[in-house]
């Protein structure tokens, strides 16, 4: 039967209030507990300039070790690894997207979350890290298809799924055979999804991606010691298809909208992150041209960073009612 969304747990006074209320990462990292559960993290934990335990977030090895520890402590993931040079994303922000998607789904279903096993989600660009499917499965029990144009990333995601009994049968990593396509050639005949999600490539060229990485690392600096010595080029990694594509974020989302419009009944809510607010007007115009019947923009924030995702549907009221009755309503 359907169940209400879980209530947020009480958070300490130092909570990161900008994160979603159900996000378990609102509190400061408990580095002693994380290090105890994942000993390899301990080598990177030191007092920062304020005397608090932390890591150097400009060090890719430290960030990777922290991710392993967080996935183990909060999501029960015993094995997690990524190939060298692949994207190692911050988990709190990824979790926010998942929790806001749950809110969107519940809102579409009269305020209650449909049964987890019945919800199918397509993660466009799952990456070698497989973070969104891990969180979505462990938090809400959803079933995932994760697509990627990179065969190495697909195999890495498959390895993560196979190595963790808690993910068994819940995540299908699928290769998108045409690098310039998103849904075309990937969504199979008769296949439907309750939601799609995507963190599109941000930059329009390799040079732009490199400049952005330099600014990020310069901004991070170091929170340990004096900050002397060489800094890594990119603390979170990323292959070119993860960081940039022709047309950048705006071009990628425009293609996504166009392809979604060719399969209006394949998904209830198509969604994508939009990092640049300047991208939004073009997205809205593309959605109007494609014939979307409803568009929502959901704001999110992590620290100083403001972000959002856009959700759209092509379903008419009767089609939505049929979707609810056939896919989400359970027999009494």
UniProtKB/TrEMBL annotation:
Q: What is the E.C. number?
A: 2.1.1.181
- Coiled coil: which residue ranges? none
Q: Where is it mostly found? A: cytoplasm
Compartments it resides in: Cytoplasm
Report the top EC class in one word: transferase
Biased composition regions of type Pro residues, renumbered to the chain: 1-13
The family database entries (Gene3D superfamilies) matched by this protein are listed as: Vaccinia Virus protein VP39
Which keywords describe this protein according to UniProt? Cytoplasm, Methyltransferase, rRNA processing, S-adenosyl-L-methionine, Transferase
**What is this protein's function per UniProt?**
Specifically methylates the adenine in position 1618 of 23S rRNA.
Alphabetized HAMAP family for the sequence: 23SrRNA_methyltr_F
Put simply, this protein is called: Ribosomal RNA large subunit methyltransferase F
